[in-house]
Design a protein that fits this description.
The chain is mainly α. It has a single domain, classed as Serine Threonine Protein Phosphatase 5, Tetratricopeptide repeat (Alpha Horseshoe), CATH 1.25.40. The protein is built from nine helices and no strands. Helix 2 packs across helix 4, helix 5 packs antiparallel against helix 6 and helix 6 runs antiparallel to helix 7. The longest helix is centred in the middle third of the chain and has 14 residues.
Length: 135
């Protein structure tokens, strides 16, 4: 079940996909309200912008963080079809599978991530937890 979102204006334009305000909205800076707003802003444009990796990542991330793991996993699959070695998306896909209760698939994603060379320090430190399928 999706979480309810509280509406607050973002002041973000869809035309400015590369703008710093847009990226901050998608990343949320830890604020669930911003992620909820980002989802509500981005979702109506999915038909037109699906396939753009930056757009898809922001939409999937905001979907996952606002209680829509099924939607997020679908979008992450779309990204991975284009960029199978996108480590951040593989991590997020694992999180989406965890949220869906699909622990076996989550573990596979986390194990895949741990096979990549040159992992970001944060992912490398999380290695033991990821190998066990935990977060």
């Amino acid at each position: 079940m999706a979480r309810l979102c509280h509406r607050a204006p973002l002041g973000v334009r869809i035309g400015g996909m590369g703008s710093s305000r847009h990226r901050r909205a998608g990343r949320g800076a830890g604020a669930r309200g911003a992620l909820c707003d980002a989802y509500q802003l981005l979702e109506p444009h999915e038909d037109r912008l699906a396939g753009d990796i930056k757009f898809d990542y922001l939409l999937a991330r905001s979907a996952l963080e606002t209680g829509r793991p099924s939607k997020a996993s679908f979008i992450y699959e779309r990204i991975l079809a284009q960029e199978p070695n996108y480590v951040g998306v593989r991590l997020e896909m694992g999180r989406a599978y965890l949220a869906l209760g699909d622990y076996a698939r989550a573990k596979l994603e986390f194990e895949t991530v741990m096979r990549f060379e040159n992992l970001p320090a944060r992912a490398a430190r999380a290695g033991p937890d990821l190998r066990q399928g935990g977060g």
